[in-house]
Amino acid sequence: MHSYTLIAPAKINLYLEIIGDASGGLRQRPDGYHELAMILQSIGLADQIGVHSLSTDSIRVHCNHPQVPTDNTNLAYRAAELMATQFPEAFSKYRGVEITINKQIPVAAGLAGGSTNAAAVLVGIDLLWKLGLTQSELEELGAKLGSDVPFCVAGGTAIATGRGEQLSPLPSLDNIYILLAKYRSLEVSTAWAYQTYRQQFGNSDIRDTNNLAARASAVHSGAIVKAIFDKDVRQIAQKLHNDLERVVLPAYPQVLQLREVIANQEGILGTMMSGSGPTVFALLESQQQAEQLKLQVREAIPDEDLELFVTRTITHGIQIGSSV
Ligand code: C5P
User: Fold this and answer.
1) Which domain holds residue 152?
2) Residue of 11, 38, 167, 190 best suited for mutating to test ligand 1, as the one with most atoms within 8 Å of CB
3) pTM as predicted
4) Catalytic (active-site) positions
């Protein structure tokens, strides 16, 4: 096979807690990252990634979205570079790779769009170069690229700790319906969101830092995880949490207003910002309710810059679409 097409789903955060690190307060870890306890959930909104063998040693990226870079600042490009350096023999045998990104997931939105593209490139090159890597080997490679990449390889529903790369799978949640709302022109830098959180709450909001491991593992016995085991969607929706709302909502009044408009609509089970934002999501029991909410939000905020998507929870990460 010389080409594969992969389906690369987005994710939402059902839970995001910034724990800090053992060295005191919310100071960064030695690697500059923050210690987190998250619950990540794959959703149906997905990009399509084509990977195609080239007869030269180059890596080429094409994308239908003008804001997505095609050089080595693109995580998908870096995923191909990583594979070339990790597997030099396969690289010299199979040569370069052309990557085509058909972008449906909003960019810089807190939905792991870049991470899921990188995860798809790892899976695609593993297939192209017949490496036979296991899922955990692919996840380990993914962790070298970004905190959310291992989850994007695995997908489904999972607890993520460490900087987000240590995964514990949870029972699958399928067919919870979701409305995603994002202002097209708004982008939030993840690095900015974490840095601002540390600056604002690092001293005044110190948590039990002697007990970091205990705090990270507390998420395993928390109310939202119990609700996921019970498949109690109402309870899951009640327990949604995201520490980054504390910095992103005040800095982006439009997002705060959107969050409030959605929270005040009838029929929603719960609402929260995903990751570092600015996407806001709502959970609903049926597709009909999600479509109804979409109409209500559109009516309340008739701004063409506001993109709305109806999707649902899914139980998988990267999937192979087709091969030639
Ligand atoms: O790992 P990823 O590249 O997705 O992270 C983007 C940025 O978000 C990092 O450069 C870092 O500034 C911040 N981050 C963090 N702690 C984490 C994850 C991300 O500070 N656990």
Assistant:
1) 1-324
2) 190
3) 0.94
4) 11, 148
